[in-house]
TrEMBL record:
Keywords from the named record: Membrane, Transmembrane, Transmembrane helix
Gene3D superfamilies: Band 7 domain
Record Pfam families: Band_7
Protein name listed in UniProt: Peptidase
Domain Band: 26-190
Keyword check for Transmembrane helix: yes
Recorded topology in the membrane: Single-pass membrane protein
Organism: Chryseotalea sanaruensis
């Protein structure tokens, strides 16, 4: 009898569980690490751009909408044909890395919706690449000023993107394809420049070596001149007498004739 009274409550409980399970996706939501969410209050203030939902478990009214954005760093490749300063067509592959400003995704959603990459990022990158490369020649883009071109594109594109709450991390020119005849001419010119630099290096080295030898010869000549000027007759006689006195102290037998040498210098006669 008591079990029959519980049946309606059991049925009601089961029905309630099914209802809750059915609408649970509208009541609860989870934000993963690296994501952020913005809420749209259908019967309230509309899009809440200021209160961004961070990672974790959240609840909401069933009629409110949740828009989840990845705030991780993203990458986009762009292939395009551009014209250089002289009007020459160049095909370039560009890779751009970017991420939305996490606490500004409400403003991104308001202006561009979740398709902001195709609406904002890609067009701005392509436009900036064309504008910047149009200031340089194909040779500069291909060889001498490639790093400068990359830096300029990044700086100019970043100004536009950050104004729309997107941070530009990096921009890289992956490849540059020129018409074969133009490419061959540029590579030939670069090779000739390298050969000219190598030849100039050898010349400079030989000039340096010749200068070193000249300076060494001049130094040796001055030293000899100083020595010759200092060797007077009196000095030579004095040195000779000093040497004779030293020899006289030697235990070896010898005959010293004073004043018998040339210019009155002592003459030494030995038995060896």
């Amino acid at each position: 009898m008591n079990n029959r009274r519980l049946v309606p409550f059991i049925v009601l409980g089961v029905i309630t569980l099914f209802i809750i399970a059915g609408i649970s996706s509208s009541l609860f939501y989870t934000i993963e690490a690296g994501d952020r969410a913005v809420l749209f209050y259908k019967f309230g203030a509309g899009l809440d751009k200021e209160n961004i939902q961070g990672p974790g478990f959240h609840t909401k009214a069933p009629w409110n909408e949740v828009y989840v954005y990845s705030v991780r760093e993203q990458s986009r490749d762009e292939n395009m044909d551009v014209l250089d300063k002289s009007g020459l067509s160049i095909h370039v592959d560009v890779s751009v890395r970017f991420s939305p400003v996490s606490d500004k995704i409400g403003y991104i959603h308001e202006r561009f919706n979740k398709d902001y990459v195709n609406i904002l990022v890609a067009p701005e990158v392509r436009s900036t690449v064309r504008q910047v490369m149009g200031r340089y020649t194909a040779e500069e883009i291909y060889s001498t000023k490639r790093a400068e071109v990359e830096t300029t594109i990044k700086e100019e594109c970043e100004k536009i993107l950050i104004a729309n709450n997107v941070h530009m991390v990096a921009l890289l020119i992956r490849s540059i394809n020129l018409p074969e005849q133009i490419k061959a001419a540029i590579e030939s010119k670069l090779q000739q420049q390298q050969e000219a630099l190598a030849y100039q290096f050898r010349l400079d080295k030989e000039k340096s070596e010749a200068e070193r030898k000249r300076i060494a010869a001049e130094g040796e000549s001055r030293a000899n001149l100083i020595i010759n000027n200092s060797l007077t007759d009196k000095l030579l006689k004095m040195r000779g007498i000093e040497a004779t006195l030293e020899l006289a102290k030697s235990p070896n037998s010898k005959i010293i004739v004073v004043g018998s040498g040339k210019d009155g210098m002592p003459l030494i006669l030995g038995n060896n």
